[in-house]
Write a structure and sequence with these properties.
Blueprint: H1 3-8, H2 36-44, H3 58-70, E1 75-79, H4 82-91, E2 99-103, H5 108-117, E3 124-128, H6 133-139, E4 144-150, H7 162-169, E5 175-179, E6 197-201, E7 215-219, H8 221-236, H9 241-252, H10 254-273, E8 278-282, H11 292-298, E9 305-310, H12 315-324, E10 329-330, E11 340-343, E12 362-366, H13 372-384
Parallel strand pairs: 2-3, 2-4, 4-5, 5-6, 10-11
Antiparallel strand pairs: 1-7, 6-7, 8-9, 9-12, 11-12
Helix pairs in contact: 3-9, 10-13
The structure holds pyridoxal-5'-phosphate.
Pyridoxal-5'-phosphate (PLP) binds near residues 107, 201, 213 and 215.
Length: about 375
Amino acid sequence: MDLSYILNELGEERADYFNAVSPPIVQTSNFAFRKVEELAAAFEDEMSTYLYSRGINPTVDILRKKLAALDGAEDALVFNSGAAAIFAAVLANIKSGDHIISVRKPYTWAQRMFDVVLPRFNVTTTYIDGTSLANFENAIRPNTSLIYLESPNSWTYELQDLKAVAALARPRGIVTICDNSYCTPLFQRPVELGIDISLQSATKYIGGHSDVVAGVIAGSAAMMKKIFDSEYLNIGSGIQPFNAWLLIRGLRTLPIRLQQVAANTEKVLAYLKQHPKVEKVIFPMDPSFPQYELAKKQMGNAFGLLTIVYRTDSRQEIVRFCESLQHIMMAVSWGGHESLIIPKCAGIRPEHFRSDREDHRMIRLYIGLEAADYIIADLDQGFSG
Ligand SMILES: *Cc1c(COP(=O)(O)O)cnc(C)c1O
C-alpha cells in the first residue's frame, strides 16, 4: 500500500463527517442502539461494533487501520502507553509455569514485568545476548512460550536477526514480540520478517511532538482479537480518542520528520566522531558498529538516538557538560521535535561512579528537528565550556 495513501486517506471516510479533512474526535464513552438484536450482537463480538470506548472507538479505528497498514499487518491495537502495550502483549501469550526468553536489557518496564510481576505467577525469564542466534536456541526449554526482542535497543543498539529468530520460534509454537520503537515501521517491519507482534512506543516518533504517551501493537487479526477480547478490555488501557487524534496528526508528518532527524543525525555524528572529548560513538549505521552488516541488511536506516562515551576520568565533567547545554534539554523519552540528552551517570550514585567503566561515561543523545548547525554549536560550547 502506498505510504502517502496510508497517511493521508486510509481509514478516513470523510463523507461520514461533513467532508472534514481532519477526522472528528469522537469523545464519547458509549454508543446507543435501537434494536435489542444489535445490542446482543455487540455483546457477542465487541471488536466489530461500537459499544463502549474502552473497546472500539471511531477515532481510534482510523488510527488502527493506518498503523496496521504501516506495519504490513492485518490489524493493530493502540494503548495508553508503550508500557501498557508491552504488558498486554506479553500477558496474553503466557500462562503460569511458562518460560520467557528476553534480550538482555530490554526496555525498563518490560524488564520490571519479567523480574517483578511475572515471577509471582510462576513465569520465569532468561535474559540472553541476542546478537547470536545460538543463544536463543540454547535457551529454549519445553515450556518456553515467548521470545521478547528489542532491535535495536535504546542505549547500545544491539540487534537481533529478526527473520532468523522468527524462523526458530514459529515451528516450535513460541510467540515472538519485537519492540520496534527505534526504527518505526517506515524502516523495519518485524511482522513481514515473521515476528508475531510488532510493538512501538507511539510516544516517540508516531506522536513526534512530546505531547502524548501511547503504545501500539500490530500483528495477525487472530492475535489482535485474542488480545482485544481479554487483556485490552480487561486492563482497560486503550488509548483515548483525543490522544488517538494527536497520533493521526503525528502520522501526517512522520516521513518528513524522520528525514530531517536522519539528515541531522548524519551531521552530528560526523561532528562527534572527530571530537577529542568523545572516546567512542555507538550508532548502528556506523561502520564501527559490531553488527553494521546486519543493520544494513535489516533496517532501512538508523537515526535519532546515538550514544557517546565521554572521554574523562571525572563524573563532574560529564555533569558540567550536560548542565552547560543551552538548547539541548536533559529529559527522558525521545522521538519529539526537540533534541535531548541523558547521561548514564544520573542513574548511578556518585560514590559508585567508576571512570574506568565505559558504560558509566555514556551519554545518550536524541537528535531532533532543529537545524544541525544549531545542535552542533550547542554541543561544541558544552564540550569547551
Ligand atoms: C519509551 C519506550 C517504551 C515505553 O513506552 P511508553 O510510551 O513510555 O510507555 C518502550 N520501548 C522503548 C524502546 C521505549 O523507548
